[in-house]
Amino acid sequence: MSLNLYTYVENNPLTRVDPTGNSYERIEVQTLINIARYENTSQSYWDIRSTMGVEAKHDILNSITDNNQFKYLFGIATLTHYDPSENTLENANWAEEELIKMYSNITQSEDVSNSAIGFGGTIKLVGRAASLIKNEIGLVKAAEKMGKNQMVQKEADELVAKFLSGNTNPGLGTKNLFKDIYYLRGDEGARVFYKMANGEMQILAKASKANEDKVIKILTDIYGK
Q1: Are 138 and 218 a contacting pair, CB within 8 Å?
Q2: How far apart are CA 169 and CA 196, in angstroms?
Q3: What gap in Å lies between CA 138 and CA 153, rounded to an integer?
Q4: CA distance linking residue 124 with residue 3, whole number of Å
Q5: Considering only CA atoms, which of 170, 195, 191, 169 is closest in space to residue 181?
Q6: Axis crossing angle, helix 137-147 with helix 68-77, rounded to the nearest 10
Q7: Which of 162, 222, 148, 165 shows the shortest CA–CA distance to 192?
Q8: Judging by DSSP bridges, how do beta strands 115-117 and 191-197 pair with one another?
Q9: Does the pTM exceed 0.70?
């Protein structure tokens, strides 16, 4: 059965609450994404992006990236990414599924304070984190490239969550890059570069084994002097 998207959300996609009572379930995410694709950077597009982004901030692993993970996925899902080569239906379908997973995790963790869910259990977070990736376009692109591999992205998120839970040597172990900059390493190739400042984990970059050397060069140019 076909579904008129505007009718489904009572002609107001900005309410963001599914009128059937199922907030941010698969059908609602798909509906809002499809409306945003149709609106294509109109004011309604930006309002939907803003509304969905507010909810996405409740996902702990997305909040670590200053909501940049949501913004990246939303751009890909709505075929409005700044790089036209990224705007394919295959990428859009993948990003839509990732957004559905993100909101599913939020629903699952509503009653769990400061926890990360998604790899076989619940981990209590005892540390704080902030992302500085957005400060350098080369690092933003490297993180986006890594994020295309779902397995590596998941591993990177797990490494960060385990680190914040108190395990300072997760995965293959933590290595010092230079000075006060370290990086977490995973079996699937995930790399998360960070430094500590006033008890906060400051994430400087994310990479896979494929672009690890390029990211290290950028970090060396910025912080190695």
Answers
A1: yes
A2: 14
A3: 18
A4: 41
A5: 195
A6: 60
A7: 162
A8: unpaired
A9: no
Query: Above 70 in pLDDT, residue 115?
Result: no
Tell me the pLDDT band of 55, cut-offs 50, 70 and 90: confident
d(CA 66, CA 64): 6
Closest CA to 117 of 150, 70, 72, 158: 158
Provide the pairing of β-strand 191-197 with 181-185: antiparallel
> Phi, psi (5° rounding) for residue 106?
-65, -45
201's enclosing H/E stretch is strand 200-207
Rounded distance between C-alpha atoms, residue 204 and residue 24, angstroms: 31
> Which residues, 6+ apart, have CB-to-CB distance to 198 below 8 Å?
none
**Owner of token pair 């490239």:** 145
Separation in Å, CA 90 to CA 47, 81, 85, 118, 150: 25, 14, 12, 24, 14
Q: CA 131, 137, 139, 143 torsion: positive or negative?
A: positive
The alpha carbon of residue 107 and the mean position of all alpha carbons in its chain are separated, in whole angstroms, by 16
Beta strands 122-124 and 128-131, pairing class: unpaired
Please say whether the beta carbons of 113 and 199 come within 8 A.
no
Domains of the chain: 1-111 (no CATH), 113-225 (3.30.2310.20)
Length of the chain: 225
Output the DSSP codes for 109-128: TTTSTTEEESSSSEEE--SE
Give the pLDDT score at 26: 85
What is the token pair recorded at 49?
A: 């992006």
